[in-house]
Amino acid sequence: MRRTIYLILAFALASSCGASAITAEQIIENVERNQINEQERIEGSMTINDRFGSRVKTFVSYAAGEDRMLLEFTNPEERGQKILRLEDEIYLYFPEAEEVIHLQGSALKESVMGSDFSYEDMTGEGDLLDQYAVTLLGEETIDGRKHYHLELEARKRGLAYPKQEVWIEEERWVMTRANAYSLSGRLLKEMELGDVRQVAGKYVPHYIIMRDAMKRNSSTEMRIEEIDLAADLPPDVFSLEELTW
Question: By residue range, what is the domain housing residue 65?
Answer without folding.
Answer: 33-243
